[in-house]
Amino acid sequence: MNKSLLGASLVTLALAAPLAQAHEAGDIILRAGAITTNPTADSSSVKVDQGPLSGADLGGKATMSSDTQLGLNFAYMLTSNWGIELLAATPFEHDVKLKNTALSAANGKLGTLKHLPPTLSVVYYPLDAKSDFQPYVGAGINYTWIYDEHVGSDASAAGFSNFKAKNSWGMAWQVGADYMLTDRVMINAQVRYIDIDTRATVENNAVAPGTRARVNVDVDPFIYMVGLGYKF
Ligand code: NI
């Protein structure tokens, strides 16, 4: 095929492509993609709150690693501009580390935890429904269910046990965009900030029987997702 024929074919293809229709009332949108949770993880110092050393401030702070999983969005359009959306994902797993505490055996990896952060949001698409490019903003409520907390092997050898972290309710904000490839298929990118605050506790009977330490962690992650969507 020579160049002018190829050019003519592309023009014909472009003219023949169905007019992409963006979102309208009653649409159900399913998106799937790679989702990364990157905790900002600011924390209080580590304090002993039970046992003979109760009240001791060990200083330091807790940090958390990031993790990538399969993210899912289920959205329902109430009008061509307003929708509701549920975020779901396969379980995230994070390493929890303590650093710079006065108890050198406590510094390093304390353990791991898993969590699921279902989030229900109201989303607003400001552009005209005919636009193929559909940026949006959203705000909603998050429930983070933390489970399967485990003390790591080094921390376990140092006497740590019974690591626990509390579940969290908080606000969630997001910006994102859909770009319609056809009248049903879209590519999507989104960023969220979720207020997740937890209190973690861990026991250590080797330091002194009945000793428990706690740390308040503002997990407050940025969450990034890129993927494909399909409109039903
Ligand atoms: Ni927070």
Automatic annotation (TrEMBL):
Domain of life: Bacteria
GO biological process: transmembrane transport
Coiled coil: none
Name of the protein in question: Outer membrane beta-barrel protein
Keywords of the record: Signal
Signal peptide range: 1-22
Chain ranges passing through the membrane: none
One GO location term (cellular component): outer membrane
